[in-house]
Amino acid sequence: MNKILMFVEDKLVPPLNKMANQHHLNAVKNGMMVTVPLTIIGSIFLLIPNIPIDPIQSFFEPYAAMITTVNTITIGIVGLVGAASVAYYFALGYTDIKIDPLITAFVSVAAFLLATLTDEYAINLELFGTKGLFTAILVALMSGMIMHFFQKRDLVIHFPDTVPPLVSKSFMSLVPAFVILTIIWIIRVILGINVNQILMDCFSPFVFALNTLPGFLVFMFIRSMLWSVGIHGGAVLAVADPFFLTMFGANAAAFAAGTQPPYITASGFTMFVFLGGGGATLPLVLMMIRSKEKGFSTLGKLCLPASIFEINEPVVFGVPLVMNPYMMIPYTLSTLILSAGTYLLMLFNIIGRPVANIPWTIPPLFSHYLVTGGNIPAVIWGGISLLIAGCIYYPFFKAMERQRLAVEKRIGA
């Protein structure tokens, strides 16, 4: 096991860390984070008239259409916001030359509007949401790269120093902005190429794969193994976030329409897997509190408040779980078993599917109720999941505890 850990640390960690900090991936990750408040607010307004309690539903039923307008708007502009936010962070990430991120963001939005025009050259409002997200990301990255290309080679308009900096900066972006919009105009209007449809066709296999049990288990296995060796799995695999967000958009729309949500692994699914944080470590913290080993007991008490609110870095690096042969197996195994169990229960409609995007710091059980739109069986499964995770961690934790107690005994002797 030690040889495996050394191999991972020496050979795999450096390139994976480099990937986690890759400019393009960072821009997508940070840009998608900007959309989170919108999706959370929209989800709240979607849940209000759909709380599965008859008196509450009856009260809100006459006003349901009015209330869910907030959801329609917030979820309906995720793609538009993504076009701006991804371009903004992409421009901001260049270190060799300074590019105005705000101008890049606005140019990206204009390019996105052009790229998503209908065949009649009208603005396609339908693609402002998650359906146009892949196009938004592509256009944002392209806008940033062209801006960088022109400014680095000084292919821009310059003004004397006497001209106000704001005016000079605006005209400096004129040539690259013209090139960006002209390219998109030629592709969509002159050549009639439906960029969004092509991207949807290209990425649909990935969406399909991530919504299958084998595909999602592979994804979660890689994520857990990365965390086990000290690499932020979420950062490395952030490229998958737009796929899950696209699924969420479809689920939210279906829930609002009163139909069956089509996707299982949409954003919110991991609320059933990350109980107390990645690896379902809340049961482990509770075991630590009751441990006979003083170090574990003290650390468990310190970590409990954070773990309840899904923050488990103190556990991951305090125990530690990172590079720990005792904990690598249960950390990964609990993730896979809970993912498989949750997937199958949703597949057979025993528990509800994700229809709301909620803050990831909401404690387990409460989060399960909210993310499924008030599904009680989902809450019951959340409680069972805590017990399952506890059973998985128990033998491994006890083995580690016995080792530490033996060391304490030798030191005391």
Structure overview:
The chain crosses the membrane at residues 31-51, 63-90, 102-118, 130-150, 171-191, 203-222, 234-257, 263-289, 333-356, 376-396. One of its GO terms (molecular function) is protein-N(PI)-phosphohistidine-sugar phosphotransferase activity. This protein is mostly helical. The chain folds into two domains: 26-205, no CATH class; 211-412, no CATH class. Helices cover 69% and strands 0% of the residues. The protein contains 20 helices and no strands. α6 (78-92) packs antiparallel against α7, α7 packs across α8 (133-152) and α15 packs across α20. The longest helix is centred in the last third of the chain and has 37 residues, at 376-412. The chain is globular and about 75 Å long. The mean pLDDT is 89.
